[in-house]
């Protein structure tokens, strides 16, 4: 099983309306509190929207993603900003990197896209292997109570985005709550029009698993992590309440 496929149409529009300032202000501050461990890598880095926050701090930060289309956007972004990073097109469950890292991070709930728990555990084990001794993994997930923030079961919605090149992308989405309400699914069909003529169609099957705190803590322990701490997303020194996103900070001994 792989996470939802991010094709060229999804990659092109991924950053539209996306504000990561709250998330990344937290993550960068958290990294500084841990002593600026380096080198860093963002797993499931997508278009590089998050990586640049660390690169602007002078950090040596690489990126990994399963979608070559998302990494193409990332490369263009880094080139335009004058940054250089190693970018790897790999799945987390088969990740095999040329070096080890002292800090890995997966912000914005992206880890939940690996919605099969057995594969998610395999991914955590792989991350543990790729860290240096003493290295940190920081990621955040959403709990089952967060389901109310998504579309209702069987709900349909629509979206329309217009681009500077004259193209229009129309998206129709169908929501489902599956696996006893632990996984949210939104099946999207994207259609790209130019001068009112359909040019391209792409399916994007979004899925995200919700985790209880004790559930993911146990998986991290199984993968070999210790010194596991939790905070509310995205607030330092604040414990999560029911329905709050949860940030997990764990360490390789």
Description:
This protein has a domain at 35-145 and 211-252: Vaccinia Virus protein VP39 (Rossmann fold, 3-Layer(aba) Sandwich), CATH 3.40.50. 25% of the residues lie in helices and 35% in strands. The protein contains 6 helices and 11 strands. It has helices spanning 8-13, 21-33, 51-55, 68-81, 117-130, 213-222; strands spanning 40-43, 61-65, 87-89, 101-106, 131-141, 156-162, 167-178, 183-194, 197-209, 225-232, 246-252. A 7-stranded mixed sheet has the order 3-2-1-4-5-11-10, with helices on both faces. It starts with 7 loop residues before the first helix and ends with a strand. The relative contact order is 0.16.
How would you summarize this macromolecular structure in one to three sentences?
The chain is α/β, with parallel strands linked by helices. Helices cover 25% and strands 35% of the residues. The protein is globular.
């Amino acid at each position: 099983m792989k996470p939802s496929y991010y094709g060229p149409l999804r990659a092109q529009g991924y950053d539209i309306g996306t504000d990561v300032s709250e998330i990344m202000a937290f993550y960068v501050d958290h990294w500084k509190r841990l002593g600026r461990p380096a080198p860093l890598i963002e797993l499931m880095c997508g278009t590089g929207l998050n990586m640049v926050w660390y690169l602007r701090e002078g950090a040596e930060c690489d990126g990994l993603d399963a979608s070559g289309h998302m990494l193409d956007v990332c490369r263009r972004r880094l080139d335009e900003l004058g940054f250089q990073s190693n970018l790897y097109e790999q799945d987390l469950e088969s990740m095999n990197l040329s070096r080890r890292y002292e800090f890995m991070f997966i912000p914005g709930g992206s880890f939940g896209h690996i919605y099969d728990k057995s594969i998610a555990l395999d991914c955590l084990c792989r991350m543990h292997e790729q860290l240096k001794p003493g290295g940190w993994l920081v990621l955040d997930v959403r709990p089952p109570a967060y389901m109310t923030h998504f579309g209702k079961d069987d709900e349909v919605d629509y979206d329309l985005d217009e681009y500077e090149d004259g193209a229009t992308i129309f998206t129709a989405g169908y929501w489902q709550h599956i696996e006893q309400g632990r996984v949210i699914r939104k099946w999207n069909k994207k259609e790209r029009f130019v001068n009112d003529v359909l040019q391209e169609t792409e399916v994007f099957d979004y899925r995200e698993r919700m985790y209880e705190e004790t559930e993911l803590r146990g998986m991290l322990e199984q993968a070999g992590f210790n010194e596991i701490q939790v905070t509310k997303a995205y607030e330092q020194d604040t414990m999560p309440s029911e329905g709050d996103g949860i940030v997990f900070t764990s360490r390789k001994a």
